[in-house]
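[Q] Does anyone have a clean structure-token version of this?
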Amino acid sequence: MAQYTAASSEGLEHLPGANTAETRSLVRWYAAARAALAHNRPLTTAFAVPAGRDLAGELSAAELTALRGVGAFKNDVPVNADSDPLLRSQAQYMALLEESLSAAEAAKLLRVDVTRVRQRLRERSLYGLEYEGTWRLPRLQFERRLVIPGLAQVLKALPPDLFPLDVVDWFLLPEPELQLERDAASLSPRAWLLSGRPIDAVVKVARDLTRT
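[A] Here you go.
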């Protein structure tokens, strides 16, 4: 798996058509997705950052290569991300990989051996994306140095084939069934679990996804 490091940015000048509006559009979607993930906000509510912002120094050569590898630049001609939902999803997926933890990073965060993290991934008590032979663990499942309460039960109730971007948004978007009072705002599954409310309520919502 490519190692993504924003600190080693080489800018957009190495991409074909680097000065085109299409390239800037793609990069804005990628940056917006990373910003949303960094703050545990849903990807579906992430909007491209303002067009006037200069993002030339915010992507590393590895990130640009990864974007190209998933078809972000077809035939060396950038595609307009604002009018291409598939391309937008590809940019969001690469942003998810970038913002997630490696198995070693997760082990350090949780103060356990990396073999324990891999075991939990196999057991589905942690959620991970397998990419080019390595694991990436989205940050939304952690709070400080702990796994969010009830994660294992919820993950085992979720459909195992749910697309990673859908998993992220499911955890982070408000769920109508997760509210205590009729007039209260709905909570996301993540917020509900962190609040200490009954885990079974989230498990039920997850199981309902399997039935649909």
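[Q] Thanks! Anything notable?
[A] Confidence is low (pLDDT under 50) at residues 1-19, 51-57, 74-81.
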